[in-house]
Amino acid sequence: MVCLVCDASLFIIRGPLGVAGWQAWAVLLAGVAADLALAGAARHSGWVALAHAIVFASGPILLCPCTGYVIGNNAGLLIAGYRAGAWLRTGPAVLALAATVIGIGSSEWIGGGRGAAPALILISMGVTGLLPWLVGRYTTARRAYIADLERATEQRQRHEADAVRRAVLEERETIARDLHDVISHHVSAIGVHAGAARLSLPAKGLPANNIPADGEGDAAVRQSLGAVESASRSAMADLRRLLDLLHARDDEAGQPGLDNLDELLGTVREAGLPVHLTVHGDVREIPGSLDVALYRIAQEALTNALRHGTGPVEIELDRRRTEIVLAVTNKVSAARPDREGAHRGLAGIRQRVTLFGGKVEYGQLPEGPRWRVRASFPLEVA
Fold it and tell me: Is the pTM of this model over 0.90?
């Protein structure tokens, strides 16, 4: 629009509209159309430059009898050359440059007559045709160079961030491995030896006057050893949470937890075993490893129910203030199950529960042919 306004205003003020008749109007309208074409898509820049070259060369032919004429697309020709140099590939850009330079040279030669100075024609071709084209090519090259620099910088920063992340993860895994191999071993040994020492003491307590005599101070020793056991269990719980934090990876998909119970129950129902889930208590945040353990216990109990059960399965998840309890109950057939396979699954459940300092109970209920697995895990409460 700027080119159109400038070119049209200049032609109307200084052009031969009142002298040349329809030829002047033809040049004016052709210049307006060529300037409007500058608003088109960048892929048409070559054709737009060709149109401007034709309009620029046609002006002297139509207006040659008039003196002091003005071409109708002076500004538009400059921008058309710039667009051709900036947006086209090398081959089309060179063709557009050639068309523009030829149009400018033809206009200067026809308008100035055969006596026009060749040097002036070449200067006009360079200033009006070549210079805008070179500015366009330079702008494109500079833009591409800056884009390459930004892309290289972004890629380098991404690689550096990945390297730092990998180094942090490796260091966290090293720390977790050392904690597990050294500290957890010693803390567990402290708890085991304290428990063994407490169990080896006689069951005789202190007298009424609370003065230890004749070996009656064993109750105080038992109390101290119990405190050592309790402290070691608390230390192991804190250590497990720390190991969960150190082993956590931001880019891992994550193991299934209680949030995936519905998918597990859907799979069991598709296998033909009806399952009902009952949840008690408020939802609260639990350690990630405990979340995975609860899911695996439910999965193992449902697998045993599929193998040896005959009726519906009742799953109860009780989120209490100081513990979380998972119970799975199902009917069993009169025939004795595959005890080896069942015991392997129960041994895995027992190992998972023991790891978190919990309790597990399993067996046949007295009120009928029903089997229950009940696992409880203590929770730290502030």
Answer: no
pLDDT digits (tens, 9 = 90+) for 2-17: 999 998 888 888 877 7
- Distance from C-alpha of 303 to C-alpha of 34, rounded to nearest angstrom: 79
Q: Under DSSP, is residue 300 helix (H, G, I), strand (E, B) or coil?
A: helix
Q: How big is the chain, counted in residues? A: 382
Kindly state the tokens that stand for 297: 């216990």
Strand pairing class (275-280; 309-319): parallel
Q: What pLDDT does residue 356 have? A: 82
The whole-number pLDDT of residue 251 equals 45
Helix (H) or strand (E) holding 377: strand 370-378
Residues paired with residue 331 on neighbouring β-strands, in sequence order = 370
Backbone angles phi, psi at 169, to 5 degrees: -65, -40
Distance CA 338, CA 299 (A): 18
Q: Identify the residue whose tokens are 């939802």.
A: 283
Query: CB under 8 Å to 148, separation ≥6 — which residues?
Result: none
The single-letter DSSP state of residue 331 is: E
To which residue do tokens 């859907």 refer? 266
Alpha helical stretches, state H, 43-183: 45-63, 74-87, 90-112, 118-125, 131-178
Phi/psi for 285 (5° steps) reads -75, 135
